[in-house]
UniProtKB/TrEMBL annotation:
This is Carbon monoxide dehydrogenase, medium subunit. GO terms for molecular function: FAD binding; oxidoreductase activity. The keyword DNA repair does not apply. InterPro entries: CO_DH_flav_C, CO_DH_flav_C_dom_sf, Diverse_Substr_Oxidored, FAD-bd_PCMH, FAD-bd_PCMH-like_sf, FAD-bd_PCMH_sub1, FAD-bd_PCMH_sub2, Mopterin_DH_FAD-bd. It holds the Pfam family CO_deh_flav_C. Gene3D superfamilies: 3.30.465.10, CO dehydrogenase flavoprotein, C-terminal domain (3.30.390.50), Uridine Diphospho-n-acetylenolpyruvylglucosamine Reductase, domain 2 (3.30.43.10). It comes from Jiangella alkaliphila. Residues 2-179 form the FAD-binding PCMH-type domain. It comes from the Bacteria. Keywords: FAD, Flavoprotein, Oxidoreductase.
Length: 293
């Protein structure tokens, strides 16, 4: 199928208007942001909705990048291309630019949004791995006001999120801590493809170069992007070294839950999860050390 089933189209004029439409139209309605995940699913008839509520007119309310000293706030309608191009974001969190360079192609990056990526809840979504790694907080607004959900609780399973009926993801917040470094690694079958496996890492160092905290997020190796607290526990308080990265890699390889599919076998994906974790950690530490000097 190349043509979606017929649907009605509404263009939201404000976030409150979108919430009102969602409330009124119920589960027969869906928001459309970049449309790069929703529309292919509708064309393939994997999803059918009677109403699409277009939020692309809400750039003033939802399309922004606010870089603060202690926190970065990104509106849900911010596009892949904007995340790729922001030098300020790359300075604070180089993991974003690493990831955006290997997400899809310019056409998708010109329209696809951060909010759409997280709400699609595809287990292979690279930005979900980035947000998990950076310990993001998701701001969800609905008829009863606003609530904040940590990234670790945002995905309830493949294609399921904490965003409830009548609600909209409005903003994603990222804590900024001193002496941090981050990186993203991905293996795909061809340029612009979804990940066979991808891995994000972030580390924070003390004045003596010891790891005070670390986080790793993997994509395409479990029902949803996988945060690995055991990796963080193994790294905290330790001096960075190749041996330490090896130990973290082996925890990541054992701790993920890949399936065999057209992209690779369980064994191959576990191998990649370990190898990419190691590379991302090594690069994160190098970047954190560069910032210190
Ligand atoms: C050819 C191709 C290659 C791709 N390759 C990659 C890749 O390599 N890596 C990768 O990570 N991604 C990839 N993607 C996915 C791409 O990143 C999409 O843009 C992204 O997944 C969805 O963003 P969107 O804005 O297009 O969302 P949409 O398709 O508009 O929406 C997706 C879902 O999120 C909901 N939604 C959207 N915004 C909100 C909101 N603010 N609040 C609540 N619900 C909302 C919609 O209702 C819908 O259910 C690829 C896509 C294509 C078409």
């Amino acid at each position: 199928m190349q043509v979606p089933a017929p649907f009605e189209y509404e263009r939201a004029t404000s976030v409150d208007h979108a919430i009102g439409l969602l409330e009124r139209l119920g589960s027969s309605a869906r928001l459309v942001a970049g449309g790069h995940s929703l529309l292919p699913m509708m064309k393939l008839r994997l999803a059918n909705f009677e109403y699409l509520i277009d939020i692309n007119g809400l750039r003033d309310e939802l399309g922004y990048l606010r870089i603060g000293s202690g926190e970065i706030r990104i509106g849900a309608l911010t596009r892949h291309g904007e995340l790729l191009e922001s030098d300020e974001l790359a300075a604070a969190f180089p993991i974003f630019r690493d990831a955006e360079r290997v997400i899809a192609d310019p056409v998708v990056r010109n329209w696809g949004t951060l909010g759409g990526s997280l709400c699609q809840a595809d287990p292979s979504e690279d930005l979900s791995a980035v947000c998990t790694t950076l310990d993001a907080r998701c701001v969800i607004r609905g008829p009863r006001g606003e609530r904040i959900v940590p990234m670790t609780e945002f995905h309830h399973g493949p294609y399921e999120t904490a965003v409830g009926d009548g609600e909209i993801l409005t903003e994603i917040r990222f804590p900024v801590r001193p002496r941090g470094g981050s990186a993203f690694e991905k293996v795909e079958r061809r340029a612009g493809d979804w990940a066979v496996v991808s891995a994000g890492a972030a580390v924070w160092l003390d004045e003596n170069g010891r790891i005070t905290d670390a986080r790793v997020g993997l994509a395409a190796v479990g029902p949803n992007t996988t945060a690995l607290p055991a990796v963080a526990a193994a790294l905290r308080g330790r001096e960075p070294s190749e041996r330490l990265y090896e130990a973290a890699a082996s925890i990541a390889a054992r701790g993920c839950r890949p399936d065999t599919d057209m992209r690779g076998s369980v064994e191959y994906k576990r191998h990649l999860a370990g190898e990419l974790t190691k590379r991302a950690l090594r690069r994160s530490v190098e970047r954190a050390l560069e910032r210190r000097s």
